[in-house]
Design a protein that fits this description.
alpha/beta; two-stranded antiparallel ribbon; 14 helices; binds 6-deoxy-beta-L-fructofuranose; binds manganese (II) ion
Length: 388
Amino acid sequence: MTDRTRVLAALRDQRVETASWAFGNSGTRFKVFAQEGVPRDPYEKIADAAVVHRFTGVAPTVALHIPWDRVDDYGHLSAFAKERGVALGAINANVFQDDDYKLGSVTNPDPAVRAKALAHLVECVDIMDATGSRDLKLWFSDGTNYPGQDSVRARQDRLAEALSAVYGRLGAGQRMLLEYKLFEPAFYMTDVPDWGTAYAHCLSLGDRAQVVIDTGHHAPGTNIEFIVAFLLRAGKLGGFDFNSRFYADDDLMVGAADPFQLFRIMHEIVSAGALAPAAGIAFMLDQCHNIEPKIQAVIRSVMNVQEATAKALLVDVDALAAAQQAGDVLEANDVLMDAYQTDVRPLLRELRAEMGLDPDPIGAFKASGYLETVTAARVGGTAAGWGA
Ligand code: LRH
Ligand code: MN
């Protein structure tokens, strides 16, 4: 198999999971700028996600967020998705928007509040049974704002107890993905603030508990690809929430703020042979398109992941290994930069043509008139959002 054939085959098998909430209205505490034509329910979100797959060919699943995507019949929603060529992906729990969770959800000092939060997490596993989803994604906004507000240790005990209860509820083929975040909405201490805390909890839970790396959840200057390499080596990397940022959890399009970082991350993935779906890494987008057209932004994001991946696949691994072994620092860096500096857009256009797709997904999307059609159709009702 020539190098080119190998690279094209790997890119054709790549899978990126979109996020239902990216198609709805979103913003900051200052303002949510509503957009026309935004979906009004999970069905319309999935219809938009299906369009992303139609034009990119590598985004066949869409993650749901509960209760934002709660429906009466998840079997019916799965069938709706299937008719449009996509499937329902990770189920995201939400224990960060209820008044009862002001002092925490599963870490709350009040056992009744903890029980309520746990019940929601278990409900999400019930939903996975109905949608056929493999992954339960858990992010906890839990934390404190002032020193002394609560016992750091007691909260970890409560967290471990809840995670263990959820872990015990997982069915065959299901796993839980624990997401960490340095801060926000808590501003003194977050109960799952970093990869080490998430990793430690997942280690004590078992094989079906793994860590999710949200690329916007680190302190500035964090070497995220080190965390990727470490967790891959430990068999504890479950997936990514891809986005990018200039400052904090900005949730911008992946690769937009720092394409070189995304390349370095995908280089670790490719080097570990963890790109193929069989490796079990969930490559998910977790973004907010506050001011830009949402569907086009998601298409662009998928293309950014493809471009970073293609560059990573082009790294001359033999030359790199030889330079590293020889201690030739500059040669080793050169080999990597050579791949990064390669314009892979012609290769990706060729891939899309081979897949029977328009080489220019964004041009094809615009020419389809889909946005104009749904904007005209989606009149009345309430546009989807974060429901906060
Ligand atoms: C938290 C987070 C989490 C989701 C939410 C939409 O910042 O990254 O993954 O639940 O965004
Ligand atoms: Mn996230």
